[in-house]
Design goal:
single chain; about 150 residues; alpha/beta; five-stranded mixed β-sheet; globular
């Protein structure tokens, strides 16, 4: 899993894949002491069935206390990265995965409509739990590793 140092590397890899290859972008965060750690990922699902290559970026900022603000920051970071690579997507399946549970019993549901609207307004396709694996599985796993450092 390469750490993103240059978005051109991600774009070149995507361009080298077939049009059947799906691309998912997601972000997750974790509170670690006085910091909030964000991990934004690009999952390139080869031919949509043959494994994946994962690119990721980690960023630490001053602790964000508001859940709403932190979740919208995750959405914003995922959208920003999706827009950065959108020029090379072509006809490939392309989704922005959000770490938001639509079930009202979960705290993240408070920003569901706002987050989906924001992603759609950028011309992108939003996906929420349980299908949002780039955010809820991949970015979550890397966030866990990054918070140990």
């Amino acid at each position: 899993m390469p750490l993103i140092k240059d978005m051109e590397d991600v774009k070149e890899f995507i361009k080298s894949t077939s049009e059947r290859t799906a691309v998912y972008v997601g972000c997750d965060s974790r509170q670690v002491r006085d910091k909030t750690v964000f991990v934004t990922v690009v999952v390139v699902h080869i031919d949509s069935c043959r494994g994946a290559k994962i690119f990721w970026r980690t960023e630490r900022v001053k602790r964000i206390r508001s859940l709403r603000q932190r979740l919208m920051e995750e959405v914003s970071r995922a959208v920003f990265m999706a827009l950065e690579i959108s020029e090379v997507i072509g006809n490939r399946p392309f989704e922005v995965h959000l770490d938001i549970n639509p079930n009202p019993e979960h705290n993240s549901s408070v920003i569901l409509k706002e987050a989906i609207g924001y992603v759609l307004a950028q011309g992108l396709k939003p996906v929420v739990k349980p299908r949002s694996i780039a955010a809820t599985t991949v970015a979550d796993y890397i966030t866990g590793m990054a918070s140990l450092v």
